[in-house]
Amino acid sequence: MGAPELSPPERKQWTNPVEFFLTLVAFAVGLGNVWRFPYLCFKNGGGAFLIPYTFMLIFIGAPVFYLELTLGQFTSAGPLVVWRVNPLLRGIGYASLATNCFLALYYNVLIAYCFYYLIASFQLVVPWSTCGNWWNTPLCTDQRTLANLSRIDLDLMKNMTTSPSEEYFYRRVL
């Protein structure tokens, strides 16, 4: 009498292709990409930036994304196990894991900033709107003070002063 054969666990399947496609889009395009892309486009040359961006997307971004997708679907394994296919490329899995850890840490800090500002905003006067708080320096100048200056004084003051919101972030939040 032999030992019973173990069958592999049943693999989960997508219910329809639209669900799979929307999951891929959500994986590839985050909120950070949506709000930063126009800014990066403008900062790096406007429409001329789209030429190298499209080139890199077609020849590097899409093939690497497709490779990661197909290897993950084929092996049903994570980034460390999938590269057993070729041990020379095992470092790619470790680099991918390290990148994901740093990205998660980065996003957690950004979300913590958002929660901090959300909680701090439940006040009648938000703390980053005025000077005179314990974290402000003598260089702090609010909008009311700047509104009463002449144009020449305003140009001089802008280079020598800091805003209350800037000081709140650098001297209180951080």
TrEMBL record:
BP terms from Gene Ontology: amino acid import across plasma membrane
Transmembrane region(s): 20-37, 49-67, 87-107
GO terms for cellular component: plasma membrane
Membrane topology (UniProt): Multi-pass membrane protein
Localization, UniProt: Membrane
Keywords, comma-separated and alphabetical: Disulfide bond, Glycoprotein, Membrane, Metal-binding, Sodium, Symport, Transmembrane, Transmembrane helix, Transport
Cysteine disulfide links: 131-140
An example molecular function term from Gene Ontology annotations: metal ion binding
Main location: membrane
Binding locations of Na(+): 28-29, 33
InterPro entries associated with the record: Na/ntran_symport (IPR000175), SNS_sf (IPR037272)
Protein origin, superkingdom: Eukaryota
Family named by the database record: Belongs to the sodium:neurotransmitter symporter (SNF) (TC 2.A.22) family.
Name of this protein: Transporter
Annotated organism of origin: Rotaria socialis
